[in-house]
Amino acid sequence: MSDKGEVDLTGAKQNTGVWLVKVPKYLSQQWTKATGRGEVGKLRICKNQGKAEVVSFTLNEELTTVDTIGEKSSMVRAPREHPFTLQTVGGQTLAVFTENSSDKIALEGLVVQRAECRPAVSENYMKLKKLQIEELSKPMRFSQQLDKAVTTNYKPVANHAYNLDYERKKKEEGKRARADKQQVLDMLFSAFEKHQYYNIKDLVDITKQPVIYLKEILRDIGIYNVKGTHKNTWELKPEYRHYQNEEKSD
Amino acid sequence: MTSLGSSSSSTTEYVVRVPKNTNKKYNLMAFNAGDKVSCSTWTQARMERDMSNRRIYGEEETPDGAAGSEFGKKQREEARRKKYGIITKEFKVEDQPWILKVNGKAGRRFKGLKKGGVTENASYYIFTQCADGAFEAFPVHAWYNFTPQAKHRTLTAEEAEEEWGRRNKVVNHFSIMLQRRLRGQERGEDEEEEGEKGGKKKKKKEGRGGDLRIHDLEDDLDMSSDESDGSNGDDDEAKSKAKKEKGPKGKGKKKKKKASDLEGFEDSDDGDFEGLEVDYMSDESSSEEEQLEKTKPNKGEDVPKGIDEMSDSEEESEEENKNEEDGKEEEEEEDGKKTPVQVEKKKKKDSSGESDSSEDSDIEGEAASALFMKKRTPPKRGGGRGSAGSSRTGSRPGTPSIDNAATSNTLRAAANKLEQGKRQTTVPSSETPAAKRLKMEPSPQSSSGKSTPQPVSGKSTPSSSDVLLTEDAVRRYLIRKPMTTKDLLKKFQTKRTGLSSEQTVNVLAQILKRLNPERKNINDKMHFYLTE
């Protein structure tokens, strides 16, 4: 589709300026909890002679509650005041582009100002940080003592069920009998029709013949690959092969 | 939005919203400031994911079923991977780089690689101001660093290694890429197009000086000795000079595939290139010397072939004229082996200018016979001439000869000789040409070896032009043994008789008419002889 790759350049043409703000993790977490229209707080910009000098963000009251695991949530609150540290865009030209759910790409604008959102240092903040550190410092794995020994996994058994089945299968199958050479050849050829290389074990499985007998037959019609990618495999001799048409000839 | 006024500064408050359900994912596109990317100048842009890495993850697929496949291969491979704990990474489309094409085919191309670790510890938000003055913050999903992609040809790793090894010798870096391009052309073209290429290279040389011909070198010498703007066709002669010196560096030579083969093989002989302007003495001369050396053997191969052709193509009607020319040309060819001679001839050629070219065109018109000629000499000789050369190149296809290129080259060589003869009224004026003539004479004799067994060296007294084209002289020769007209012409060289080629031809024709010698066909060649 020619549309797919096209980039909508309206943002670039309008030269829309945006701000790129680095926001702490906890703050972004709080923001995700916003309700309604998504209002999260207020941004106060103090301009001195036109240039934005002091910028500060105030978090809304209702978003200051921190969800923590374990500790009582009321104890710790997220700080409200966050001054912004303004930085230059300098050595990079930053543009913002968006990707639709339908894979449509649009250029939204250029970054004119970079800022870092820092929390105003307060008692609240320190407590919050302490909590965070505690959580993070917990190891991923830990040892736990069990009250009772685990007895559900396996018990000693005279003979395992699997083993019994195996022996039964073996008995019923019996030793493999040598079938007619021609029949075996037919089986082999039809097998080699499907794949070119076979392991001897797989062939034994397919033909249900004793190994020695099978090997003799194979020595007649096939070759054993010792080296190469298909090592230790049997394949038909070239004169028996006919792979282009996916047939084999005798 | 509330505004608080204050004396010197104004503070405004804006509401910040974080929209919940946007279907748009915001990403950052970072360009280096040095690339001077201005998004406002983009008229159209296309951006797609670069899927070229997909096959790495796809892995080699062995044929499924029938030929080439193994029974249970997949299961075995899987079991093996589990055993060794090999985990292959999935191919994630999200992580693939972007390819951005700006302003269509002729515009710039960028590749955008995803920057890792952006969203791990902190989140980036894009604050946009809405119409109602409120700010909307969108989280940045990913950060891509875009770098411009080079459209110009670059050297491959092997070539870069080569060039690195030669970095001290190479002064003209512009020619590196040119040579590479030419090399590519060569490999793709046939042998027979070499002539065209020669022509092309001629013109190119005028512009770039990256090609590699002996005549380049000669032109250098010419330029250093006489000022000829025609031979160069360049406005900036100094530049072309410098380039020509680089030219002989051995990069564009047709027969040589790799430039690196040429350099650093031979020591330079003293005094070979004294007149040359060189930037780096030792290296320059050595490479040039190599070149010449290499041309010499090349020429050498062609000579025997040429002589045969020459003999074959003789015809009686135009014999005299042709023979004279042939003789000259043959000598010229032998001459060709010795570069200094060629150099000198070139000197003469170039300085002669129009008169030379007219003479040459005459000779060309006359000579219908195929004279042996190396294919390379035409471009070489012509290269020194600029417009004259190109005009001759044009006329060359017109001459109905078996080997056009060969003919004109020999003719030109002949013309040179004639000019030389004309210019030097007294033969001993320059020892070197005479000395070279000396060298020349035995060699044609030895190489032709057909009709003139006796060494001419006995007769080749370098300082006197005492051989006059008389009936007696001719008779003497013909009595002694049967000779072809070519051989006769050889006896009466223009340098020594003081006659022009035309005159010699005419006089000889008259003499032969008067003598009316017997004719005999030896080796399919018409020989004259007298029995008295």
TrEMBL record, chain A:
Keywords: DNA-binding, Nucleus, Transcription, Transcription regulation
Protein's recorded name: General transcription factor IIF subunit 2
Highest taxon above the source species: Eukaryota
One record GO biological process: transcription elongation by RNA polymerase II
Subcellular location: Nucleus
Family: Belongs to the TFIIF beta subunit family.
CDD domains according to UniProt: TFIIF_beta
Function: TFIIF is a general transcription initiation factor that binds to RNA polymerase II and helps to recruit it to the initiation complex in collaboration with TFIIB.
Automatic annotation (TrEMBL), chain B:
KW Nucleus (keyword) present: yes
Bias (Acidic residues) ranges: 217-237, 263-291, 309-334, 356-365
GO MF term set: DNA binding; RNA polymerase II general transcription initiation factor activity; TFIIF-class transcription factor complex binding
Keyword Transport listed: no
GO cellular component: transcription factor TFIIF complex
Major location (coarse): nucleus
Gene3D superfamilies, per database record: Winged helix-like DNA-binding domain superfamily/Winged helix DNA-binding domain (1.10.10.10)
Classification via CDD domains: TFIIFa (cd00240)
Biased composition (Basic and acidic residues): 207-216, 292-308
Protein name as annotated: Transcription initiation factor IIF subunit alpha
